[in-house]
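Key idea: predict the complex, not the pieces.
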Amino acid sequence: MELRPDSLLLVETPLSMSRLPHEELSADAAETARLVQLTLSGDSAAFEEIIQRYETRVMTIAARILGTRDDARDVAQEVFLRAFKYLHRMDVQKPMEPWLVRITVNVCRDAARTRQRRRDTFVAVETPDAVDGAEDPHTGLVRKQERLVLRRILDGLPEKERLAIVLRDIEGLTTTEVASILQSSETTVRSQVSRGRLRLKAAIDRLMGGHQ
Amino acid sequence: MSCAFSREMLALHAEGDLPAAAADTTSAHLATCVHCRQFLEHLDARQALVKSLRLETVSRADCEQMRRDVMARINDGRDRSGWMLRVERAVLVAVQQRSLATAAFLVLGIVSVSVLAQMRDAGPVVTQVATLRDGQEDMQRPEGYRNWVAVNQPMEPGHRSTDASATRMLRSPNDRVYIDPAAYRRYVKTGTFPEGTLMIWESGGRGAPLDGPHAGSSQLLASVKNSARFDGGWGFFDFTGPDGAPASTAQALPESSGCRTCHRRDAATDHVFTQFYPALESARRGAERVEPVGINRS
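Result:
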């Protein structure tokens, strides 16, 4: 099992959805804006740099929403192709990551519907690579089994609740950010999050036993 | 759990998602309700389990494979955008560049001003059809004047006007006199010629030359009302070139040409011989207007 500390960093990275004056753009955002301009002027190598910057983030979110590595890879591919196609519509005064996350969520929705149509009785759920080098092999296996069960439970949630839970509780975004990505109100997001948490708790209690 | 307190509130309270007032209410209830405290503790444990999914990530190999696939499709042009999207991109990219945006706004402004000027009922100066050069006494030949309002009715070949004065003003029965449409409309409406009024006299080129003030070799004459520039308010121009063909520009004719003197003395209305032109005469008298020919309705 591979230890990937950068994944933890990604989890802790907040999404800044606020509009920033140009002079206040961070060096990182300015570099992204430069890469966008280069891409728009025909430099595809610049777009490859953009992919490198955000590929882990996009793939991780897709994997957490869809639950499978193959689906996540397909989704990420579609996300970056759409981003390339509509790059001229992106506001370079704003951070790129929320824009990509919004595309990712939309593509995941499409993929989930496609997957639902082709799914009959068999559900192939797999967990992405787990990271927990501090545990002994037995504990690690137990944890992995728990996460596998969790993934199945999460996958069974209604789509809107699943998206709200993934973005709010797993990605750690604020309610405001989640509402922006889902193009919904904060009140609606709170409602989806609370229902999702209660459904998850009930499902975990049923499978693992515990407080009802 | 026997307490009826809202579980949805507790579910939001677990992660600090409640607004301040609701959070205070929930905290106050938790302080007194052991059932809800137990439920919240259990919910916290489940939430910790859910958050353990944060430890899942994707491999670098998957990312690299995905990136290679994307770049291959982009470089192969397999995902080439449609023409509308390409146009949209070109426009938006251009707008993002200040110089191009400035040029675009200038072009837009010029087009808008031009369209608005043509839509106006009558402007004080007919700059779109005749240009008097600043600081110079010459004028550019107006284009398209044959589509203006022809104020003298065409005469049949061999026709002899009963008005000797009118006939005398024309060298040939086929000579035509035009007025720019905006000035014509203003004149019909107000009875006065607005600043910028432009009139054209064009030789018919056929018929026996008559003995009149326009006799001679002139082919194309113009008069312009511009009180700021010309004594008496009107300037007179002869666009006849040395070879008889119309010239592109013309100098203002001097006082010695006699144009102004004749027009001031004999014309019925402000240097214009409205008495000879039915379309103008009827408007001047306020009588039933004779429909002119060649009104430019554009």
